Amino acid sequence: MYELSRVRLFSIGPAGARYADTVLDLRGVGAPVPDPAPRQAQLFEGEAVGPPRRPAPAGVLFLENGGGKSVLLKLIFSVMLPGHRNTLGGASTGVLRKFLLADDCGHVALEWQHVLTGETVVVGKVSEWRGRQVSSDPRKFAESWYSFRPGPGLDLDGLPVQVGGRRRTMRGFRDAMTELHKAYPDVDVVWEEIHDRWIEHLNALGLDPELFRYQREMNADEGEAAGLFAVKNDADFVDLLLRAVSDTADTDGLADLVDGFAVKLAQRAELTAERDFVEGAVELLDAVGEAAARRTRVRAVHRGAEDTARGLGRELGARAELERERTAELARRAAES
């Protein structure tokens, strides 16, 4: 089992609650780690004093209203529960996209420490707007998830989020992480872009996203944990039980399908009127098209008749000229005789 050890937020958050480069450090104040694993010290790291300790078992974050408490939780949960349907607090679709400015490459990185061995693993999310332009189109919002095991060459503090004092793009960050992995294979960098695969990877690491789903439901309205179990009847209890023991991936897909049908039903009157208009217009345009076709056929017949008449006129003119010549020839012969 792992406990949250540190959180790093970089270049992310809404305008009123931005995290430029913030680290929440919970290390070294809990109980001693019972079976610490051997570890190699980082370059320039001081000599460790005593056995490693677990992170703080609890903590309180004091911020004024609008200071970023809910933003912090939403960002942490976006790493462990990807997808807009899992946004903490029942927020509307797209709320996480509002935490990113046009030129941001936002980072949320969580360092977890194993309760028995003290070993750490970092899981994180990086996101940015494609084309450096904020859009209402979710397809232009790029996000990826990654994990690595801190060690010489790469740790939470050393994430390559900047180069020369400037923020790296998502592509630049990923390339830098890839190069570090090549130089230090033990850090074991893994990237995922599909929600289901990321969930599977978290489970493989020993980080259970299902626990965060319960936390999300308990904080749906910023209430208490007791609200999760406040069932009113047997149907509510069965629903709670089914959600606890079954995978919601299929039902989420069904929910998206139903949402799509709901949108279409809401637009039915408008779409029906549009269909009737189009059908009426097509009927009238078909009549116009048929009339135009008949006109074209009549004009073709007329042109054919004109061509025939002109040909006949030319033939008659030629015959008349021939007859005049013959008459003149006969008159000349008669005069000579």
Highlighted features:
16% strand; six-stranded antiparallel sheet; 7 helices; N-terminal domain of mukB; single chain; 3 domains; two-stranded antiparallel ribbon; elongated
Describe the protein's architecture and organization.
Strands 2-1-3-4-5-8 form a six-stranded antiparallel β-sheet, covered by helices on one side. Strands 6-7 form a two-stranded antiparallel sheet. The protein has helices at 69-80, 170-183, 195-205, 209-218, 234-245, 249-266, 268-336, and strands spanning 2-12, 19-25, 105-114, 120-129, 141-148, 162-163, 166-167, 190-192. The mean pLDDT is 84. The protein has three domains: 2-224, N-terminal domain of mukB, CATH 3.40.1140; 231-260, no CATH class; 267-337. The chain has 337 residues and is of the alpha+beta class.
Average residue pLDDT:
84
Class from helix and strand fractions? alpha+beta
Unreliable stretches = none
Give the N-terminus to C-terminus distance in angstroms.
Answer: 140 Å
Please count the beta strands (DSSP E, at least 2 residues each): 8
Structure annotation, total helices: 7
Order of helices and strands: EEHEEEEEHEHHHHH
Rg over CA atoms: 39 Å
**Count of domain modules:** 3
Q: What is the CATH architecture descriptor of the largest domain?
A: 3-Layer(aba) Sandwich
Tell me the fraction of residues in β-strands, as a range.
15-25%
Gross morphology is elongated
- The top-level CATH class of the largest domain is Alpha Beta
Can you give the helix content as a percent range?
40-55%
Could you please say which CATH topology of the largest domain applies here? Answer: N-terminal domain of mukB
The major beta sheet can be summarized as:
6 strands, antiparallel
Task: Give the strand order of the largest sheet, numbering strands 1, 2, ... along the chain.
Answer: 2-1-3-4-5-8
